What we know:
This protein is an alpha/beta fold. It has 10 helices and 9 strands. A 5-stranded parallel sheet has the order 7-6-5-8-9. Strands 2-1-3-4 form a 4-stranded parallel sheet, sandwiched between helices. Helix 1 crosses helix 5, helix 2 crosses helix 10 (287-307) and helix 5 crosses helix 10 (287-307).
Amino acid sequence: MKNLLDVESLSKEEIEDLLLLAENLKEILSRPIPKVPTLRGKLIALLFYEPSTRTRFSFERAAKILSADTLTFTAKGTSIEKGESLLDTVKNLEALGTNLFVIRHPLCGVPHFLAKYINLPIINAGDGTHAHPTQALLDLMTVKEKLGTLSDLKVAIIGDIKHSRVAHSDILAFQKMGSVVYVSGPGFLLPEPKEEEYFRLKPHSFKVCYNLKTALENADIVIALRIQKERHGKALLPSFQEYHEFFGLKPQHLGWIKEGALLMHPGPINWGVELDPELEKYPFQVILDQVENGVAMRMAILLRLLSGD
């Protein structure tokens, strides 16, 4: 791999390689001093043009565990406010000695654009409504860790599918590993019929459900999504309360899924909207496991792109 731009460009073998590497690297996190010299002398620029907690800090943590240095960039307080272009910003950071860029941007395709003009590794940390490949990879890691397999599973993704880059990457990632994906939510937040074919990698591996029970029934994994209100452009929901009434996951829905099914969420969580607060006590809720695995997976990605090991 030269870059990590999306799930589409990854083969099943490349995904399996990253999963194995991340599983091996996770042991470092439990050491008394979680630090290895593997990327000493490397400089990683974190370019975040949108707010972030988990992704930004897990990349920073991953880099520091591997002994790399980081430059953390946000648009406010930089020459972006003076009119400097994105490409000029990146070229200037390259001139400062940067070895790899991690970028989050509100516009779809920005990491792909940079990859055409910058001869350094680019990691997509989320671009608009398009993709969030590192989240999909850490989700795969969490499921494999908990269930021991990634094949022949039913994955139910509930919420704002249309505007969620996490959903788009997860839909493709789980299918690539041999599972089926069912999505559900309000009709205006689901993929349109012409988009369904893009997400369906093979026959019967992807289904859009307008009925919540159909999506959840016998699911091995349930992934709840935040309503991407900031990407709607106009009001698409009457209220969060109404969304919670019809599509928020509640304790009574646990009877539809398989016993021991995993409950996941990429964060940030709006308790009482997409998830009932009572579900925080669900014994197979693995949301913080996802956060921890995010560090290990991002360590693996940095290592693979910067050293090839």
